[in-house]
Amino acid sequence: MLAQTLPPEAVLTPLQAAVLGAVQGLTELLPVSSSAHLYVVPTLLGWKYEGLAFDVALHGGTLLALVIAFWNDWITMLREAFSPDAAVARQARLLWAKLVVATIPAAIVGKLWADPIESRLRLLPLQASTLFLFGLLLWLADRFGPKGDDERQPTWRDALGMGFSQCLALVPGVSRSGITMTSGRMTGLSRRSSARFSFLLATPITLGAFLLKVKDVPHDLPAGTLAIAVVTAAVFGVFAIRLLLGMVRRTGFGVFFAYRAVLALVVIAFWVAGR
Protein backbone atom coordinates (compact mmCIF):
# COMPACT_ATOMS: atom_id res chain seq x y z
CA MET A 1 0.00 0.00 0.00
CA LEU A 2 1.21 3.50 -0.80
CA ALA A 3 -0.44 5.02 2.24
CA GLN A 4 -2.81 4.26 5.06
CA THR A 5 -6.28 5.46 4.10
CA LEU A 6 -7.89 7.87 6.53
CA PRO A 7 -11.59 7.63 7.36
CA PRO A 8 -13.77 9.91 5.18
CA GLU A 9 -14.66 12.14 8.16
CA ALA A 10 -11.01 12.78 9.09
CA VAL A 11 -10.22 16.45 9.58
CA LEU A 12 -7.25 17.97 7.82
CA THR A 13 -4.29 18.22 10.21
CA PRO A 14 -1.91 21.21 10.34
CA LEU A 15 0.87 19.05 8.85
CA GLN A 16 -1.34 17.96 5.97
CA ALA A 17 -2.40 21.58 5.45
CA ALA A 18 1.25 22.64 5.24
CA VAL A 19 2.04 19.88 2.74
CA LEU A 20 -0.92 20.80 0.54
CA GLY A 21 -0.04 24.48 0.81
CA ALA A 22 3.48 23.72 -0.39
CA VAL A 23 2.05 21.61 -3.22
CA GLN A 24 -0.23 24.47 -4.25
CA GLY A 25 2.49 27.11 -4.09
CA LEU A 26 4.89 25.09 -6.21
CA THR A 27 2.55 23.52 -8.74
CA GLU A 28 0.23 26.47 -9.42
CA LEU A 29 3.11 28.68 -10.49
CA LEU A 30 5.35 26.07 -12.08
CA PRO A 31 3.90 24.63 -15.32
CA VAL A 32 2.95 21.26 -13.82
CA SER A 33 -0.77 21.69 -12.86
CA SER A 34 -1.86 22.42 -9.31
CA SER A 35 -5.36 21.00 -9.84
CA ALA A 36 -3.91 17.59 -10.68
CA HIS A 37 -1.48 17.65 -7.76
CA LEU A 38 -4.07 18.77 -5.19
CA TYR A 39 -6.17 15.75 -6.11
CA VAL A 40 -3.42 13.24 -6.82
CA VAL A 41 -1.24 13.94 -3.74
CA PRO A 42 -3.93 13.32 -1.08
CA THR A 43 -5.21 10.37 -3.11
CA LEU A 44 -1.75 8.77 -3.22
CA LEU A 45 -1.18 9.48 0.50
CA GLY A 46 -4.59 8.19 1.54
CA TRP A 47 -5.78 11.56 2.86
CA LYS A 48 -9.25 12.96 2.58
CA TYR A 49 -9.63 15.19 -0.48
CA GLU A 50 -10.97 18.49 0.85
CA GLY A 51 -12.69 19.49 -2.38
CA LEU A 52 -12.60 22.29 -4.90
CA ALA A 53 -13.49 25.01 -2.37
CA PHE A 54 -10.39 24.22 -0.28
CA ASP A 55 -8.26 24.14 -3.43
CA VAL A 56 -9.49 27.61 -4.35
CA ALA A 57 -8.90 28.88 -0.81
CA LEU A 58 -5.27 27.89 -1.27
CA HIS A 59 -5.23 30.31 -4.19
CA GLY A 60 -5.20 33.03 -1.54
CA GLY A 61 -1.63 31.98 -0.84
CA THR A 62 -0.82 31.92 -4.55
CA LEU A 63 -2.26 35.42 -4.86
CA LEU A 64 -0.03 36.65 -2.03
CA ALA A 65 2.99 35.11 -3.76
CA LEU A 66 2.16 36.82 -7.04
CA VAL A 67 1.69 40.20 -5.37
CA ILE A 68 4.92 39.89 -3.39
CA ALA A 69 7.00 38.69 -6.34
CA PHE A 70 5.67 41.27 -8.80
CA TRP A 71 4.94 44.18 -6.48
CA ASN A 72 7.58 46.39 -8.11
CA ASP A 73 6.24 45.52 -11.57
CA TRP A 74 2.68 46.51 -10.66
CA ILE A 75 3.84 49.76 -9.04
CA THR A 76 6.00 50.60 -12.06
CA MET A 77 3.14 49.85 -14.46
CA LEU A 78 0.78 52.05 -12.43
CA ARG A 79 3.27 54.91 -12.20
CA GLU A 80 4.12 54.74 -15.90
CA ALA A 81 0.44 54.79 -16.86
CA PHE A 82 0.33 58.35 -15.51
CA SER A 83 3.78 59.36 -16.72
CA PRO A 84 4.16 62.85 -18.25
CA ASP A 85 6.02 61.11 -21.08
CA ALA A 86 3.22 60.35 -23.56
CA ALA A 87 5.04 57.40 -25.14
CA VAL A 88 5.73 55.76 -21.76
CA ALA A 89 2.15 56.33 -20.59
CA ARG A 90 0.72 54.89 -23.81
CA GLN A 91 2.87 51.75 -23.56
CA ALA A 92 1.88 51.18 -19.93
CA ARG A 93 -1.82 51.73 -20.60
CA LEU A 94 -1.68 49.32 -23.51
CA LEU A 95 -0.21 46.67 -21.21
CA TRP A 96 -2.98 47.26 -18.66
CA ALA A 97 -5.58 46.98 -21.43
CA LYS A 98 -4.08 43.73 -22.70
CA LEU A 99 -4.15 42.23 -19.20
CA VAL A 100 -7.79 43.22 -18.72
CA VAL A 101 -8.93 41.90 -22.11
CA ALA A 102 -6.89 38.68 -21.78
CA THR A 103 -8.53 37.97 -18.41
CA ILE A 104 -12.10 38.13 -19.75
CA PRO A 105 -12.35 34.75 -21.59
CA ALA A 106 -11.24 32.63 -18.62
CA ALA A 107 -13.34 34.73 -16.23
CA ILE A 108 -16.49 34.03 -18.26
CA VAL A 109 -15.76 30.33 -18.77
CA GLY A 110 -14.78 29.93 -15.12
CA LYS A 111 -17.95 31.60 -13.87
CA LEU A 112 -20.22 29.49 -16.09
CA TRP A 113 -18.54 26.09 -16.21
CA ALA A 114 -15.73 25.77 -13.65
CA ASP A 115 -17.63 23.58 -11.18
CA PRO A 116 -19.05 21.01 -13.65
CA ILE A 117 -15.80 20.80 -15.60
CA GLU A 118 -13.54 20.27 -12.58
CA SER A 119 -15.91 18.00 -10.64
CA ARG A 120 -16.65 15.69 -13.59
CA LEU A 121 -13.14 15.55 -15.02
CA ARG A 122 -11.18 14.73 -11.86
CA LEU A 123 -10.42 11.25 -13.12
CA LEU A 124 -6.93 9.83 -12.67
CA PRO A 125 -6.56 8.48 -16.26
CA LEU A 126 -7.65 11.84 -17.69
CA GLN A 127 -5.29 13.77 -15.43
CA ALA A 128 -2.40 11.50 -16.41
CA SER A 129 -3.21 12.11 -20.08
CA THR A 130 -3.43 15.90 -19.76
CA LEU A 131 -0.26 16.02 -17.66
CA PHE A 132 1.65 14.24 -20.43
CA LEU A 133 0.06 15.79 -23.52
CA PHE A 134 0.15 19.41 -22.40
CA GLY A 135 3.65 18.94 -21.01
CA LEU A 136 4.69 17.66 -24.43
CA LEU A 137 3.01 20.64 -26.09
CA LEU A 138 4.92 23.03 -23.81
CA TRP A 139 8.22 21.37 -24.64
CA LEU A 140 7.53 21.38 -28.40
CA ALA A 141 6.51 25.05 -28.37
CA ASP A 142 9.66 25.91 -26.47
CA ARG A 143 11.97 23.65 -28.46
CA PHE A 144 10.83 24.74 -31.92
CA GLY A 145 9.49 28.22 -31.22
CA PRO A 146 11.55 31.34 -31.94
CA LYS A 147 13.98 32.41 -29.24
CA GLY A 148 12.29 35.79 -28.86
CA ASP A 149 13.45 38.99 -27.18
CA ASP A 150 13.12 39.40 -23.41
CA GLU A 151 12.45 43.11 -23.88
CA ARG A 152 9.58 42.69 -26.34
CA GLN A 153 6.17 43.48 -24.89
CA PRO A 154 3.29 41.09 -25.71
CA THR A 155 1.28 42.13 -28.76
CA TRP A 156 -2.52 41.95 -28.83
CA ARG A 157 -2.19 38.56 -30.56
CA ASP A 158 0.11 37.30 -27.81
CA ALA A 159 -2.16 38.58 -25.04
CA LEU A 160 -5.38 37.23 -26.56
CA GLY A 161 -3.79 33.86 -27.30
CA MET A 162 -2.63 33.53 -23.71
CA GLY A 163 -5.98 34.79 -22.44
CA PHE A 164 -8.06 32.28 -24.37
CA SER A 165 -5.63 29.49 -23.53
CA GLN A 166 -6.37 30.05 -19.83
CA CYS A 167 -9.83 28.57 -20.43
CA LEU A 168 -8.23 25.16 -20.99
CA ALA A 169 -6.66 25.33 -17.53
CA LEU A 170 -10.04 24.46 -16.00
CA VAL A 171 -9.38 20.88 -17.09
CA PRO A 172 -7.35 19.17 -14.33
CA GLY A 173 -3.82 18.38 -15.41
CA VAL A 174 -3.50 21.12 -18.04
CA SER A 175 -1.83 23.82 -15.84
CA ARG A 176 -2.76 27.49 -16.15
CA SER A 177 0.83 28.67 -16.14
CA GLY A 178 1.87 25.86 -18.47
CA ILE A 179 -0.75 26.51 -21.15
CA THR A 180 -0.29 30.30 -21.10
CA MET A 181 3.48 29.96 -21.40
CA THR A 182 2.96 27.47 -24.22
CA SER A 183 0.77 29.99 -26.02
CA GLY A 184 3.31 32.75 -25.44
CA ARG A 185 6.15 30.67 -26.87
CA MET A 186 4.02 29.68 -29.88
CA THR A 187 3.31 33.33 -30.72
CA GLY A 188 6.98 34.30 -30.49
CA LEU A 189 7.48 35.59 -26.97
CA SER A 190 10.74 34.65 -25.27
CA ARG A 191 10.73 32.23 -22.36
CA ARG A 192 11.12 35.03 -19.82
CA SER A 193 8.54 37.31 -21.45
CA SER A 194 6.06 34.42 -21.63
CA ALA A 195 6.61 33.60 -17.97
CA ARG A 196 6.36 37.23 -16.84
CA PHE A 197 3.12 37.93 -18.72
CA SER A 198 1.72 34.59 -17.56
CA PHE A 199 2.37 35.55 -13.93
CA LEU A 200 0.90 39.03 -14.37
CA LEU A 201 -2.14 37.49 -16.05
CA ALA A 202 -2.49 35.02 -13.17
CA THR A 203 -3.07 37.79 -10.63
CA PRO A 204 -6.57 38.99 -11.66
CA ILE A 205 -7.88 35.52 -12.51
CA THR A 206 -6.58 34.10 -9.22
CA LEU A 207 -8.14 36.98 -7.28
CA GLY A 208 -11.47 36.42 -9.02
CA ALA A 209 -11.48 32.67 -8.36
CA PHE A 210 -10.54 33.22 -4.72
CA LEU A 211 -13.28 35.80 -4.08
CA LEU A 212 -15.87 33.67 -5.86
CA LYS A 213 -15.19 30.44 -3.98
CA VAL A 214 -13.76 31.39 -0.59
CA LYS A 215 -17.27 31.42 0.91
CA ASP A 216 -17.55 27.70 0.17
CA VAL A 217 -14.50 26.66 2.23
CA PRO A 218 -15.52 23.79 4.58
CA HIS A 219 -16.85 25.23 7.85
CA ASP A 220 -15.36 22.35 9.87
CA LEU A 221 -11.84 23.36 8.86
CA PRO A 222 -10.14 25.27 11.72
CA ALA A 223 -9.07 28.80 10.81
CA GLY A 224 -5.54 28.10 12.06
CA THR A 225 -5.18 25.07 9.82
CA LEU A 226 -6.40 27.03 6.81
CA ALA A 227 -3.99 29.88 7.65
CA ILE A 228 -1.09 27.41 7.72
CA ALA A 229 -2.05 26.17 4.26
CA VAL A 230 -2.38 29.68 2.81
CA VAL A 231 0.87 31.00 4.29
CA THR A 232 2.78 27.90 3.17
CA ALA A 233 1.34 28.29 -0.34
CA ALA A 234 2.51 31.92 -0.39
CA VAL A 235 6.06 31.09 0.75
CA PHE A 236 6.50 28.23 -1.72
CA GLY A 237 4.78 30.29 -4.43
CA VAL A 238 7.39 33.04 -4.21
CA PHE A 239 10.10 30.38 -4.34
CA ALA A 240 8.47 28.79 -7.41
CA ILE A 241 8.29 32.10 -9.28
CA ARG A 242 11.95 32.87 -8.65
CA LEU A 243 12.94 29.30 -9.50
CA LEU A 244 11.12 29.33 -12.83
CA LEU A 245 12.38 32.75 -13.90
CA GLY A 246 15.90 31.56 -13.18
CA MET A 247 15.48 28.18 -14.87
CA VAL A 248 14.04 29.47 -18.15
CA ARG A 249 17.25 31.38 -18.78
CA ARG A 250 19.32 28.20 -18.51
CA THR A 251 17.31 25.07 -19.23
CA GLY A 252 13.99 25.96 -20.82
CA PHE A 253 10.82 23.98 -20.21
CA GLY A 254 12.04 20.47 -21.05
CA VAL A 255 12.59 19.60 -17.41
CA PHE A 256 8.93 20.29 -16.67
CA PHE A 257 7.81 17.98 -19.47
CA ALA A 258 10.05 15.26 -18.05
CA TYR A 259 8.53 15.72 -14.60
CA ARG A 260 4.97 15.68 -15.96
CA ALA A 261 5.68 12.53 -17.95
CA VAL A 262 7.02 10.71 -14.89
CA LEU A 263 4.10 11.88 -12.76
CA ALA A 264 1.66 10.71 -15.43
CA LEU A 265 3.21 7.23 -15.30
CA VAL A 266 2.96 7.20 -11.48
CA VAL A 267 -0.71 8.21 -11.64
CA ILE A 268 -1.51 5.52 -14.21
CA ALA A 269 0.33 2.89 -12.15
CA PHE A 270 -1.59 3.90 -9.03
CA TRP A 271 -4.90 3.83 -10.91
CA VAL A 272 -4.21 0.38 -12.39
CA ALA A 273 -3.13 -0.97 -8.98
CA GLY A 274 -6.32 0.29 -7.36
CA ARG A 275 -8.75 -1.19 -9.89
Structure report:
- Helix 5 packs across helix 9, helix 7 (156-165) runs antiparallel to helix 8 (176-186) and helix 8 runs antiparallel to helix 9.
- The protein has helices spanning 14-29, 34-45, 52-69, 71-81, 86-120, 124-144, 156-165, 176-186, 191-213, 223-250, 254-273.
- It has one domain (14-273).
- It is globular and about 60 Å long.
- The model is unreliable at 1-9 (pLDDT under 50).
- The protein has 275 residues and is mainly alpha-helical.
Q: What helical percentage do the residues reach?
A: over 70%
User: Which class do the helix and strand fractions yield?
Assistant: mainly alpha
Gyration radius from CA atoms, angstroms: 19 Å
The secondary-structure element order is HHHHHHHHHHH
Q: What share of residues are in beta strands?
A: under 5%
How many domains comprise the coordinates?
1
What's the total number of strands?
0
Number of helical elements: 11
> What is the mean predicted local confidence, pLDDT?
89
Global outline: globular
Q: pLDDT under 50 segments (min length 5)?
A: 1-9
Q: How widely separated are the two ends?
A: 13 Å
Major pleated sheet: none
